[in-house]
Amino acid sequence: MLEVSKLSIRFKRFDRRLRSVQTEIIHNLQLSIASGEILAVVGSSGSGKSLLAHAILGILPGNAEVAGDIYFKGEALTPDRQRQLRGQEMALIPQSVQYLDPLMRVGEQVRQSVRQGDPAELQRKAFYKYNLAGMVAKWFPFQLSGGMARKILISTATVSGARLLIADEPTPGLDGSAMTETLSRFRQLAEEGCAVMLITHDIEAALTVADRIAVLYAGTVVEIALRSDFTGAGALLRHPYTKALWQALPGQQFAALPGSQPLPDNLPRGCLFAPRCSLATSECAEALPEIRTVRNGEVRCLHAT
Ligand SMILES: Nc1ncnc2c1ncn2[C@@H]1O[C@H](COP(=O)(O)OP(=O)(O)OP(=O)(O)O)[C@@H](O)[C@H]1O
Ligand code: NI
């Protein structure tokens, strides 16, 4: 359904001497999502998750320069096609609740996104699932709590009938039952043949529903693993960063990885993870390792086996 190939995103800006400088945020990123599949995209803050989502939908800011290819249903996604498909075949649950239209009643926002079926009925069902009282439909976004606004954003995208759903951190502010409801709705959509991208910091939540997990680090995919690879001490995981994330979870060894992700304007040469990696050798500093297939997954590390 979706294929992203060699995607790079740069931003142009002017420095203090008004010279134009470019910062590359996303480097040579590739991933794919099949119909019926949930792909989780995990990575720490600033790793480029939202920019990836915005590049797919064609809503990057004007100073972004994009290279690479994105295919939807086998056809290249041009800006024109993105405009046509957005809100139709492709829907976004945005990271920020600011994306709600402040001047439109929230029930209307949900109903307007329905393309197939009875809008009033689908809106009522969505509200019922989320324990939102009927009268809330008449409210404006400023009257909602953060959790309610989040539920409206999720409802708007999930009633749309889109074939590709991109959920950018959909669950903050939701209580346990609303979170379970949301994740099981994604599973249901996948079973109906949709492709779902679930962007999240929360690896544990991702592992409850995702089929595969793509791990982002400093703007590149370091590993795409199967859900079943996250087990035991992490011996089935391919990249040292993924192993470190897994081992840092409560219930595992809970050993945090020292250091931090490099900033986009100060990236190391070669492998972006090498400065924090216990396996790093001088070869790692030569060039960004190519992504390669290892045991049904993908990894960008010279030392992975
Ligand atoms: N319009 C922009 N101009 C310049 N740099 C930008 C712009 N938008 C984002 N960035 C930079 O791109 C990087 C990735 O941002 P992005 O929002 O994709 O991260 P993220 O992984 O979604 O983080 P979070 O988990 O905090 O949402 C950040 O370093 C950010 O500063
Ligand atoms: Ni983000």
Q: What is the CATH class name?
A: Alpha Beta
Chemical compounds bound to the protein: adenosine-5'-triphosphate, nickel (II) ion
Radius of gyration from the alpha-carbon trace, in angstroms: 20 Å
Strand fraction: 25-35%
Percent helix: 25-40%
Q: In sequence order, what are the helices and strands, one letter per element? A: EEEHEEHEHHHEHEHEEHEE
Report the uncertain regions.
none
Sheet of most strands = 8 strands, mixed
- Total helical segments: 8
Mean pLDDT: 93
| Number of individual domains | 1
Number of strands: 12
The CATH superfamily is known as P-loop containing nucleotide triphosphate hydrolases
Give the spatial strand order of the biggest sheet: 6-7-8-3-9-10-12-11
Report the CATH architecture.
3-Layer(aba) Sandwich
CATH fold-type name:
Rossmann fold
Cα-to-Cα separation, first versus last residue? 29 Å
Q: What structural category arises from helix and sheet content?
A: alpha/beta
Form type: globular
Subcellular location: Cell membrane
EC number: 7.2.2.11
Pfam families: ABC_tran (PF00005), oligo_HPY (PF08352)
Organism: Paenibacillus marchantiophytorum
